[in-house]
Specification:
Blueprint lengths: L1 H40 L4 H6 L3 H58 L9 H19 L2 E3 L12 E7 L8 E7 L2 E3 L2 E4 L1 E6 L1
Parallel strand pairs: 2-6
Antiparallel strand pairs: 1-4, 3-6, 4-5
Helix pairs in contact: 1-3, 3-4
Amino acid sequence: MKWAKEARQRMEEELKKETEEINEEVKDAAEDTEETTEEVLEGEVVEEAAEEENPADKALAEAQEKYKRLFAEFDNFRKRTEREKSMRYDMGARDMVEKILPVLDTFELALKNVPEAEQGSSFVDGMEKIHKQFLTVLENAGVKAIEAVGKEFDPNFHNAVMHVEDETVGDNIVVEELQKGYTYKDSIVRYSMVKVAN
């Protein structure tokens, strides 16, 4: 943010300097106009004075054009920096999600392999609640699991690593998910590794 303030201050200083220069030009043009008026009153160069533009108006128009261009450049600069900041944030968040996913996979694998004797224990219940909370936090951050089982194979979301012949299931349908896939704000973080029926 410091660099944005410095850029703004530099642009304001440049604008102030240009405004001062333009004011000087306008002042000079006004003096020229007074001289021209005196010449016209004396009867010299009446037609030429009538055809010429007022130098003050010309200087003012140029100053306004410079101001509009400077303002447009600053507005474009501001929008570009906002866009870049947003992209950097999304890239960092996506990178963090990629690093968290193996931990989530291990957590889910541990919950799947709980022995029958320990099912329903307070420890397992607590771990399931933590897992649910973990998924909620990821979902609130924009991370979503890709649906796979029972869906038609889609190479944009699924990575087929196995094929199986199964008459009970339709052609090109995902029958098993070997590793969950996830998206972050509609971009793929990890493809689902799936088994597809032919």
